[in-house]
């Protein structure tokens, strides 16, 4: 058995009708019925899509509501979906403000930490420069000690020559004094360096 559409049934009725003009009118009605049936089928498809979209939207709203409850911890004011959802969502809005405030505080703390890190790096560079200056000064001091020792040795030799040769030379004036004046000149050079 084949299923006939309403338009086919109208056409079948028109074919057996014996009234004049009725055939044309029934054909026109059958065409309108076909058009309405196509439109109805298209509308049913649209309604199906709307129902599916509504279900997806409802599921999304449910997930968002559950996420809002989890974020705020206000499960106790909602009982099986009924309750003060406005309070929950106001709390979510407050959380957003708290997040913005905490983000600003975190950014300020990060900026301060970066400033401190930069200051620390500058301090470390300054300390390294100080160590380099100290090391250079120690090298110069060692050079001065060696020079002083050499001059002292020269003065001692001069005094020893005086004792051995019997020549009267004042070691303090002739050797040692000259050596000490050279050491003092070296020290003056260190003070200006």
How does this model look, in words?
The model has no long low-confidence stretch (mean pLDDT 78). The protein has a two-stranded antiparallel sheet with strand order 1-2. 3% of the residues are buried. The chain is built from 4 helices and 2 strands; from the N terminus they run H-H-E-E-H-H. 85% of the residues lie in helices and 2% in strands. Helix 2 packs across helix 3 (85-165) and helix 3 (85-165) packs antiparallel against helix 4 (171-192). The chain has helices at 6-16, 22-72, 85-165, 171-192; strands at 78-79, 82-83. A hairpin with a 2-residue loop joins strand 1 (78-79) and strand 2 (82-83). The protein is an all-alpha fold. It has a domain at 1-72. The longest helix has 81 residues, at 85-165. The N and C termini lie far apart (120 Å).
Strand content: under 5%
How many beta-strand segments? 2
Radius of gyration: 54 Å
What general outline do the C-alpha atoms trace?
A: rod-shaped
> Could you describe the largest sheet, including whether it forms a barrel?
2 strands, antiparallel
Distance between the termini: 120 Å
Order of helices and strands: HHEEHH
Low-confidence stretches: none
> Mean pLDDT, as a whole number?
78
Helix content: over 70%
Strand order of the largest sheet: 1-2
Helix-strand makeup class: mainly alpha
Total number of helical segments? 4
Secondary structure topology:
Blueprint (H helix, E strand, L loop, with lengths): L5 H11 L5 H51 L5 E2 L2 E2 L1 H81 L5 H22 L1
Antiparallel strand pairs: 1-2
